TrEMBL record:
Protein name in UniProt: Methyltransferase domain-containing protein
SUPFAM superfamilies cross-referenced by the UniProt entry: S-adenosyl-L-methionine-dependent methyltransferases
Gene source species: Selenomonas noxia F0398
CDD domains in alphabetical order: AdoMet_MTases
Pathway in which this enzyme or protein is active: Cofactor biosynthesis; adenosylcobalamin biosynthesis
Length: 191
């Protein structure tokens, strides 16, 4: 299955959405197998959930989202892209993770200041060689991720990249680069 559904193909509303280029990099870092169980924590519109579900047709994606509009959009986008291997879980992590099965991959786009608690629960359920990929826009989240994985170096190997995407935008007869917010992608693999 190809990666990189165009942003405008998703129903979005006013809910945050991981942009196409960041989705592609996130999913490449996640290395999702065809039978993977995936948690998408802070799923927003479900753009990552949809693409993960397409990569894991024999697996299952649990899209965790607290925003009611986001919950509706995830369901609508799943129908739009004909993916049936998604379960939308309404609630805030870590509480919303209760009762979910062991996993192969966790995608974290929002943690509601509960990152360490979320990582503790995910880590307990993550299969060996499973991956956690966190997207962060604030330095506090980057620091919290790196501190967590550094203090759990006996359980994880990790890396981080910073990505700055600019898109060309037509301005009269010219093309101008318009920058998107820089994103940090932190990837950890369970030993």
């Amino acid at each position: 299955m190809d990666l990189g559904i165009k942003d405008d193909a998703f129903l979005r509303g006013k809910v945050p959405m991981t942009k196409e280029e960041i989705r592609i990099l996130t999913l490449v870092k996640a290395q999702i197998a065809s039978d993977a169980v995936v948690y998408d924590i802070g799923a927003g519109t479900g753009s990552l959930s949809i693409e993960a579900a397409r990569l894991a047709p024999q697996g299952h994606v649990y899209a965790i989202e607290k925003n009611l509009e986001g919950i509706s959009l995830i369901a609508e986008n799943a129908k739009r892209f004909s993916v049936e291997n998604i379960t939308v879980v309404e609630g805030t992590a870590p509480g919303a993770l209760e009762g979910l099965p062991a996993l192969d991959t966790a995608l974290i786009g929002g943690s509601g200041r509960q990152l360490a608690d979320i990582l503790d629960i995910v880590g307990e359920r993550l299969h060996p060689n499973g991956r956690i990929v966190a997207n962060a826009i604030t330095m506090q989240t980057v620091a919290a991720c790196l501190d967590y994985f550094h203090s759990h170096a006996d359980r994880y190997t990790y890396e981080a990249i910073q990505v700055q995407i600019s898109r060309l935008e037509r301005v009269g007869p010219y093309d101008m680069a318009k920058a998107l917010n820089p994103i940090y992608i932190i990837t950890a693999e369970r030993k």
